[in-house]
Design goal:
256 residues, mainly alpha, two-stranded antiparallel sheet, 10 helices, 2 strands
């Protein structure tokens, strides 16, 4: 742009000199004829082509600048739309997370005069699971007995957890794994064990298990429970966030 301005100024000065010469301006006191000035000016006819080229170049530069501005505005609109969509998603997501935490905290198990609430309730359900496995001699049958006994609490719990993960999975946002990881971090070891057994033997086998695998929801499960409940035999390695299941000896579960 600076080069164009300089060329334009030079041409303007040159034209002014030619016109002034024709009008009689003669700074060097030399004989000068306007007809010669005209002829001399005609010799610069090609300059008109140069000026036309400069005008075309300026028009192209202006067009490109306009296109750049249009693209910049489009990009800003896209960013604003993404930001709005993310804000709306997070508002719903964190509301779902609060509701899920309320479900956990309101879960209570009554045993005689004792009441276990929240995550302590899930620990108590693990005791029930251990007893059922010891009684039936099978982890699968023990789980089915346990889920039936606590179906009012656990079925609602699993359905809501599935709803949260499915909401993230079906949303149109970036970095979905980050949000599922927030949910995963909120799960206790007992909850992760129940989740694995539900996906291996229960209602989560069809719809929930693929999401557990996709987002590695069992990543934080302890090696102790993973071995004790033989989770490797019912869940793929991807559910733990690994390519391959690392060796863990499988032993029958008899006691909590």
């Amino acid at each position: 742009m600076k080069r164009i301005i300089i060329i334009a100024l030079v041409l303007l000065v040159w034209v002014a000199i030619i016109i002034a010469s024709g009008a009689g301006w003669n700074p060097f006191s030399a004989e000068w004829d306007f007809s010669n000035t005209g002829a001399f000016g005609d010799s610069f006819g090609p300059l008109s082509a140069v000026m036309a080229g400069i005008a075309a170049y300026s028009a192209i530069a202006a067009f490109r600048a306009q296109q750049f501005e249009i693209e910049r505005l489009k990009s800003r609109e896209i960013d604003e739309e993404k930001s709005k969509r993310k804000s709306e998603f997070e508002g719903t997501f964190f509301q779902l997370m609060r509701s899920f935490q309320n479900i956990v905290s309101e879960t209570d198990i009554h045993s005689g005069n004792n009441v276990k609430s929240g995550r302590d309730a899930f620990k108590s359900m693990m005791v029930k699971l251990s007893n059922e496995v010891a009684r039936t001699g099978s982890i699968q049958r023990g789980w089915m007995e346990t889920i039936e006994y606590y179906k009012n609490d656990l079925n609602h719990y699993f359905r809501y957890m599935y709803h949260v993960v499915s909401f993230v999975d079906q949303s149109n946002i970036d970095n979905k794994y980050f949000y599922v990881r927030l949910l995963r971090a909120a799960l206790s070891d007992s909850e992760l064990t129940f989740l694995a057994l539900n996906c291996g033997f229960g209602e989560g086998r069809i719809k929930f298990s693929p999401l557990v695998e996709k987002y590695a929801l069992l990543h934080n499960i302890s090696d102790e429970n993973r071995k004790k409940w033989q989770i490797d035999s019912i869940m793929p390695a991807a559910a733990f966030g690994r390519k391959d299941n690392y060796p863990i000896d499988s032993v029958p579960c008899m006691e909590e």
